[in-house]
Specification:
seven-stranded mixed β-sheet, binds S-adenosylmethionine, Rossmann fold, alpha/beta, about 300 residues, DNA polymerase, domain 1, globular
Length: about 300
Amino acid sequence: MTATGAPEPPLHQPVLRDTVLRWLAPRSGGRYLDGTFGRGGHTEAILAADPGALVLGLDKDPDAAPAAAALAARDPRFRFLAADFSELGSALDEVGWDQVDGILLDLGLSSPQLETPERGFALRHDGPLDMRYDPGSGETAAELLDRLDEREIADLLFGIGERRSRAIARRIAGRRPLRTTGDLRAAVIAAVGPRRGRIDPATRTFLAVRSAVNREPQALAAALHAAPARLRNEGVLAVISYHSGEDRPVKHAFRRLAAQPEFELGTRRPIRADEDELSANRRSRSACLRILRRREAGESEPAPQEESPR
Ligand SMILES: C[S@@+](CC[C@H](N)C(=O)[O-])C[C@H]1O[C@@H](n2cnc3c(N)ncnc32)[C@H](O)[C@@H]1O
C-alpha cells in the first residue's frame, strides 16, 4: 500500500538516466540535490555511480516517502525531505549544504502517480478529480474547476496551447460539479468529439488542470531562480521537462544565465532520448533535458556542445 492508501503501482523508469549521470558526473564527496525524488530512480543511479556521492532528495508527494525511507535506511549517503522544490534553498539550509555539485529536476508526475486512479491524474482510469502531488494540501482539481469562472477555465486551457479552449470551458462550466476524471474527460469529448488520432482529446485539458492545481509554473520559476546560486564551480543544473509549457521557462532562464560569465549552457539544443530508450520507455518520448553549468572561476568560454558532456 502507498502512503495515500492506494495499492503500489508499477515502477517508474528514470528518464534519460545515463545522460543525466554523464552530466552530473557524480564524484566522491560530491553533493547532489534530486528535487523530484519520485521513486528514487535518478537518486539511486547517482548513489551507484560513485561510492562517495551524497544525495538530498525532495518530493512533496507523501507516496514518495516510503521508498525514500527505505533507501535512507540502507544507504546513509542519502537524506530525504518532504518538501516542494520551490523551497530548495531552505531544504539545502536545513541539511547544512551551502552549495552543491548538481541539481536535478525531473518535472511533472511519475508513472506510479499516473497509474494510480485514486490520485486522479489518469485519463485512462476513472478516479476522483484530485491531481494534487501533495493530497494533504491545496485545492483539488474538482474544487479548482468549481471555483473558476468559464472564462478563467478557458484562459487556463488556452495557456497550455488548447485550441478549443472556449468550447471545452463552456462544457466544463455547464456540467459542474465535476467529481471524477471520467466527468472531466466526458466534458472535453462533449465539446470536441471523440479521439481521432493517437492522442486523447482530453490530454491538454488534464495537463492544464494538473499544472494549475499544483502551481507548477510558479514552483518551477522559484526553483530556476534559487538553483543557480547554489551550484558550486563546475556544478550542473539538469532539468527534464515533458511539454513546451515546462521547457520554455527553462530555456529562457538558462539563456539569460548563460549570458553571464559564471554560467554556460551544456548543449546548444535540448537533449532527447535515443532510439533504444524511446522503444523501452514511452515516457521518454516527450522528455527534453537542458543543462546549465557553473564555470570554474577563471575558466574561458568554450562553445557549447551539440549533445555530449565533458
Ligand atoms: C517525473 S517524477 C520523478 C521521478 C524520479 N526522477 C525517479 O526516477 O523516480 C516527478 C516527481 O516530482 C514530484 N514533484 C512535482 N512537483 C514537485 C514540486 N514542486 N516539489 C517537489 N516535488 C515535486 C512529483 O510528486 C513526482 O514524484
